# Entry
Amino acid sequence: MATQPALAQTAQTDTVVAADAPGDMPVEASVHPEQWPEIAFPRVLTEAGEARVQAILARMTVEQKVGQIIQADIASVTPEDVRRYRLGSVLNGGNSGPGGDDLAPAEKWLELADALYEASMDVAVGEPAIPIVWGTDAVHGHSNIIGATIFPHNVGLGATRDPELIERIGQVTAVEIRVTGQEWTFAPTVAVPQDYRWGRAYEGYSSDPSLVAAYVGSMIRGLQGPPSISPILAGPHVAASTKHYLADGGTTDGRDQGDAAISELELRLIHGAPYIPAIENGVATIMTSFSSWNGVKLSAHRGLITDVLKGRMNFDGMVITDWNAHGQVAGCSNASCPRAVDAGIDMFMAPDSWRMFYDSTLAQVRDGTIAMDRLDDAVARVLRLKERLGLFAMGKPSQRALSGEYDLLGAPDHRAVAREAVRKSMVLLKNTGVLPLQPGGRILVAGDAANDIARQSGGWTLSWQGTGLENDLFPGATSLWSGIEQAARATGGSAQLSEDGTFMQRPDAAIVIFGETPYAEFQGDITTLQLRPELRSPIATMRRLKEQGIPVIAVMITGRPLYVNEALNTADAFVTAWLPGSEGGGVADMLFAGRNGVFAHDFQGLLPTGWPATAKHGGPMLFPFGYGLRYADGPRAWTPVPQESGVSDDGSNGSVFFELGSPASSWSLIVSEDDGSNALRVTTVPVDALHGRVRISATDHGVQEGARSFTIDSQGAAIELAAMDPIDISRETNGDMLLLSTVRRDSSITDALSMSMRCDGNPCDNSVPIAEFGRLAEREWTTLGIPLKCFRAAGADMGRISSPFRITINQAAALSISRVALGSLSDAGVIANCKTD
Ligand code: BGC
Ligand code: BGC
# Structure
């Protein structure tokens, strides 16, 4: 942003001193509610409805009130807990599913919804009984459920410039949610990303606030119905949530959960803009951001929550926090945060911390730390949500309209809407004439992203990170490859899949599909705008094909514009498909001409943000916001662009510590005695350490010499990955991530190994015994996952980790290691059963 005009100080300044700000210098995050727009929140409850809310509130005990403002995760709560604690809500986090199975079939979701509802309505434990509400991240379709329609992620929808389509997507998503019994989605994300290095940039429609704002009303009406609809569940609808309030997309360097160090004007005009249509359309709930504004965490920002959102902008719905975000507020922990109640939070997403949070909040209400009228206001807002949904009158989930109609998940007319969205979202950046592909040709389909539905769907698909999912987990879905194959055949031609681009019969043209792999939240943060080095091999394939005189079409799967000038120069046509989701056929629709040789559908997608000319954020743009070619305008000549990234960083992923047998940049592999003495930094192999007691050599895995083998004598040794500068993995720990080691046991190992981390170069007393290691199948590669929470529980300071991997062995042993990284549950083959709290 350009420099901001100075703002006049006014009398109504509400100053918050940023206790969260590091260092001694207090930063002032002042807010001026009178500068924010006054908005009318539509009337969503009848007088009778409001009277009912007040009547229920009047009958509630303090315990019941505290229960209502808490949301637990289904992985950490049972129907029995709901009955006993009268909890107001549950959610399923990205990795949670009924019965501990994230991939549970649709029926199980509805069964659990019934069980939770019935527990909440059990009057034997006291009245009034208040039905529970279940929130889910249906952020691109009902994306946690196998078989559901998966829509393009928001960045792709931003390219469509079609608010009417957005409304239909909202409608379809709501219908599919209703099938499995949930009533509320944590969508739409209305972030306005200003830095695409942010791992959540793809969840935002655009970097342009007016484009985001133009969609918000449509999505909310699609999901909830128009504000006049009452109750919401009487129609094919669910409650929506706009998130993450405020300026989640405005943090410094695009750091997820970071700090937006921006003026109030920028805060209001850029990040505040989408909240105007959200409130005008009566969005039922708003989720606060993990991030801070000028050092003050949004989860407890009284000025922005109470004074601006509820006071000035008249938001009459319910404000919920994000996943344990209250624990990041200065003076708070996951178990307690009276300051956030006071700031205006109405419901706490306390996934695994709900019980401790309940106890502390109850005590704080009893001793007056939390004012009763604030608690009553929060509870009234929770009750209004339930009244507006119609929960009091609707009966249990399975009795409601659409429930259990499993055929509606991924129904043909739903998929048709998604396929239309895929077509409209694709942006044509280069076409010297190879497109559209003429009927009857022989098409080669290459690239590592060609036949991978999880990859084309991105994060927040079935699991949180969306990684490690095979195509058979997507019944009814179409990969880009199979869509292309069908289209080639339909036009009288043929297609062949060959990921590395080798072929037997010379093709007429090649489509090379490449790009990012799935990620969610901070896992997707990057430091420069490049494709990770290990994802670049399809660009070499493009070059090889071109050298053989074969026309090449590059299709990029990506959550964001990246510096890929080499692919742009090499290919004859370049299309970005973003993260299209389950309907890969939509991509083929755009690439092939109809039988008459004329295009079947013209491109309409326009860039939702600029496309960079280098890998440097803030550097020059290659294509401006709004760029996109159309077939109707004919081919366009291409002037080669410089292949200079402008950055020194190679774009490696910061959470990979060891790969293909070598430490990632800035990490060292060290072998030492248990106490750290006699340390050897392993640079070449084979080599001996500890006076010949340990032999380190290369072994093959994945690629030649893609791993290191360690043969240790009976006195034992320690193997460690260390760096000079400690890393902060507290967000990863909070997000239930694991330390993943791809290992092979090469001898019998009878004693438990211990794994530990070092903090700032020192041991920090966090040894975790791993009995599983000795039980791994001998001479077979396995990915062993150890929850990061085990190290935290054992005493590691996750904010200052200098060795994320240290294995101590006290007996003769042989083992091999090929990769060490952070990742998700779904990436682990064996999970260590260690204490996490
Ligand atoms: C994310 C939210 C999400 C919530 C529940 C958080 O970590 O930031 O966007 O709605 O988890 O899964
Ligand atoms: C995500 C949740 C996810 C969890 C991992 C959070 O940060 O938002 O949805 O399930 O981490 O357990």
Observations:
- The longest strand covers residues 813-823.
- The pocket of beta-D-glucopyranose (ligand 2) is lined by residues 93-96, 323, 464, 521, 735-736 (CB under 6 Å).
- The chain has 23 helices and 35 strands.
